[in-house]
Amino acid sequence: MRYLMFVKADERSEAGEMPSEKELADMTAYNEKLVKAGVLLDGNGLAPSSDGARVVFDDTNTPTVIDGPFTETKELVAGYWLLEVSSRDEAVEWARRAPLGPGGQIEIRRVFTDEDFGDALTPEVKEAEARMREATQHRREPSH
């Protein structure tokens, strides 16, 4: 199962404050544990919401772009890890080991699989999804 672990933003991350040398070293050590355990698929920190935007759709499906920053930091994400683990409990255990300081917060969400969509995922849609995954995988592979 795949789980996305969101690191919630705080005043420091929203101010664009970069982690200290110690915080970076602690996070690197944690990430190395994830890699050695074979569970890390992807992960990164995110720029503050002042560098971002939201696209909101109204009742008529008309999009409106709202530039950051956004005021509700408790709803913002400062980084993420994408893990491949055997259960929600395993994802929770990894989150419990993250080197976040006091007040740090991680939200854990399961990533849907094809089976979750049932009959709505027709063979045609499934084939199109497979083609797109293949195409995006080739873009991420380093060329030698």
UniProtKB/TrEMBL annotation:
Q: Which organism is it from?
A: Saccharomonospora glauca K62
Q: Where is the YCII-related domain?
A: 1-112
**Stated family:** Belongs to the YciI family.
Q: What is the lineage of its organism?
A: Bacteria, Bacillati, Actinomycetota, Actinomycetes, Pseudonocardiales
Q: InterPro entries of this UniProt entry?
A: Dimeric_a/b-barrel, YCII
Source organism, top-level taxon: Bacteria
Please give the SUPFAM superfamilies that the UniProt record associates with this protein.
Dimeric alpha+beta barrel
Q: Name one Pfam family in it.
A: YCII
What name has this protein been given in UniProt?
Answer: YCII-related domain-containing protein
